[in-house]
Design goal:
By secondary structure, this protein is mainly alpha-helical. 76% of the residues lie in helices and 0% in strands. The chain has 5 helices and no strands. Helix 1 packs antiparallel against helix 4 and helix 4 runs antiparallel to helix 5.
Length: 186
């Protein structure tokens, strides 16, 4: 007797990537929840978010676009374009981190310090933990670029670039969520 049930399969590495993403999401849900609760208490500070956050948001979205183009290039075996856009994603990712550093400088110049009022501390912790995960994403992209230069990333071997692209898009979406939440609850 033949069964018409389809078994859905997922590559174990992609599954592990999603488990990792869910774990990171839980960290940020906790941080944002604590931030929102703290903002609801009397005595909260109104903090003007740094203008650099706007620029870093644009840069990280561009980086995600570059990463997607790199993925499409790998699917088409356009290896020159693949390497170019992987490198562009790394450069724009590093630019995001530099802009975040300048953002923290803007916070300091406006009198918001890591130690002091909890509202300011939350902004540093939330953006700092995101920056840490972004650094891990940059390392991942650098590994993919290294493998690509050795001709190990192509249309028949997309696993690594698919994992890194999924993770990078997650980090971009996460930043958009964090920025909007910090803006709305400030």
């Amino acid at each position: 007797m033949k069964s018409n049930v389809k078994i859905l399969r997922m590559n174990p590495n992609i599954f592990i990537t999603w488990i990792f993403i869910i774990s990171i999401s839980m960290i940020f849900v906790s941080l944002i929840s604590a931030y929102i609760v703290k903002k609801g208490e009397p005595g909260g500070l109104i903090i003007n978010l740094p203008n650099m956050f706007i620029y870093s948001t644009i840069v990280v979205v561009l980086s995600s676009l570059f990463k997607q183009i790199a993925y499409f290039s790998a699917k088409k075996d356009d290896l020159n374009k693949l390497n170019y856009f992987l490198f562009a994603s790394i450069l724009s990712g590093v630019s995001f981190l530099i802009l975040q550093y300048f953002s923290w400088g803007e916070l300091v110049n406006s009198g918001v310090f890591f130690v002091g009022h909890p509202d300011g501390s939350f902004i540093y912790v939330i953006t700092g933990v995101h920056a840490f995960h972004l650094i891990s994403g940059l390392i991942f992209i650098a590994i993919v670029l290294f493998k690509s230069l050795k001709l190990e990333v192509h249309s028949k071997n997309l696993n690594l670039i698919e994992m890194s692209t999924t993770y990078w898009h997650f980090l971009t979406g996460l930043w958009l969520y964090l920025y909007v939440t910090l803006y709305l609850y400030n």
